[in-house]
């Protein structure tokens, strides 16, 4: 079955009625980036930059950012790279931040970064420097955005860093993974170059489930409340001409792929090991059916009913 899936790698990721989905890869290392090219990903949809620094004793320097991101960008050979800024949070806390918070509760990553603007600027400087050296098509993505004001604060830091490095600021996008971001999605879509739905956090947020709870599975994103939120994000993206992606694990789940296609998501970003199966799933769908399926699923009253509906239909 794996071999059969791999044989379809070179085929377009489009539905039987010709609706194309862009497939990108979630990566953390240069090896992951090479694996992404092997499975014909159209670049990287999520580079998780915090992962090399989970044992850090202090904020990473500009040089440390250059050193970690350069091999990943180089491995992509000019394909687009959506690089997410540091997303330290309660479940991903390096010792120096854990020490600063004896309760072990730091909360969300972005306020933490905005409270350390020099450290944040160092990451922007490092990313821009690495992109210039490798010729990468860099796009920068901010996690845990709650408001247009936060995005504006990030943009101000990025613009300063770009002027210092002597380059144009790259496209700046936001992750939609907080309820506040869904509520402000029209303004965020107006101000950002692209939107990417972090379905892992968004699902937990909307359903009141702890991220570390074993019940927090990718399939839970099929809950009607989550589907409604994803549909609102996709609609805002369309209104403002911004591409909308899903980079949480829902993008690789067979029950979610038809729903995400039908809700109007443009890009699915998943682990390289999952992409052959995602492409095969997309190629087995009819877009018009997915649109009808998603509309119906949003009106149901439980996630179990949505699962059953998808199983019956596709
Ligand atoms: C998400 O929340 O869905 C996401 C992609 O980010 P992470 O899993 O790194 O929190
Ligand atoms: Mg997240």
TrEMBL record:
<keyword id="KW-0479">Metal-binding</keyword>
<dbReference type="GO" id="GO:0009401">
    <property type="term" value="P:phosphoenolpyruvate-dependent sugar phosphotransferase system"/>
</dbReference>
<keyword id="KW-0808">Transferase</keyword>
<comment type="similarity">
    <text>Belongs to the PEP-utilizing enzyme family.</text>
</comment>
<protein>
    <recommendedName>
        <fullName>Phosphoenolpyruvate-protein phosphotransferase</fullName>
    </recommendedName>
</protein>
<keyword id="KW-0670">Pyruvate</keyword>
<dbReference type="GO" id="GO:0046872">
    <property type="term" value="F:metal ion binding"/>
</dbReference>
<keyword id="KW-0418">Kinase</keyword>
<keyword id="KW-0460">Magnesium</keyword>
<feature type="domain" description="PEP-utilising enzyme C-terminal">
    <location>
        <begin position="5"/>
        <end position="285"/>
    </location>
</feature>
<dbReference type="GO" id="GO:0016301">
    <property type="term" value="F:kinase activity"/>
</dbReference>
């Amino acid at each position: 079955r794996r071999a059969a899936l791999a044989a379809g790698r070179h085929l377009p990721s489009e539905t039987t009625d010709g609706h194309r989905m862009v497939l990108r890869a979630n990566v953390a290392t240069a090896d992951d980036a090479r694996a992404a090219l092997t499975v014909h990903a159209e670049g990287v949809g999520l580079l998780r930059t915090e992962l090399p620094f989970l044992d850090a004793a202090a904020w990473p320097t500009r040089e440390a950012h250059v050193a970690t991101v350069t091999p990943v960008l180089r491995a992509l050979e000019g394909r687009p790279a959506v690089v997410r800024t540091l997303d330290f949070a309660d479940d991903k806390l390096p010792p120096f931040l854990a020490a600063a918070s004896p309760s072990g509760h730091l909360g969300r990553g972005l306020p933490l970064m905005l409270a350390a603007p020099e450290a944040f600027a160092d990451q922007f400087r490092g990313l821009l420097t690495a992109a210039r050296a490798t010729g990468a098509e860099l796009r920068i993505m901010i996690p845990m955005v709650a408001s247009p004001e936060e995005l504006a604060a990030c943009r101000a830091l990025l613009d300063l860093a770009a002027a210092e490095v002597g380059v144009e600021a790259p496209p700046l996008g936001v992750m939609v993974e907080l309820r506040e971001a869904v509520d402000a999605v029209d303004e965020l879509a107006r101000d950002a170059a692209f939107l990417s739905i972090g379905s892992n956090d968004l699902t937990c947020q909307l359903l009141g489930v702890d991220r570390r709870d074993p019940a927090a599975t990718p399939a839970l994103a099929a809950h009607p409340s989550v589907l409604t939120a994803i549909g609102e994000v996709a609609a805002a993206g369309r209104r403002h001409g911004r591409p909308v992606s899903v980079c949480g694990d829902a993008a690789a789940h067979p029950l979610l792929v038809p729903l995400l296609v039908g809700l109007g998501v443009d890009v699915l970003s998943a682990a390289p090991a999952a992409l052959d199966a995602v492409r095969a799933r997309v190629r087995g769908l009819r877009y018009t059916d997915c649109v009808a399926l998603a509309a119906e699923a949003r009106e149901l009253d439980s996630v179990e009913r949505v699962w059953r509906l998808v199983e019956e239909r596709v």
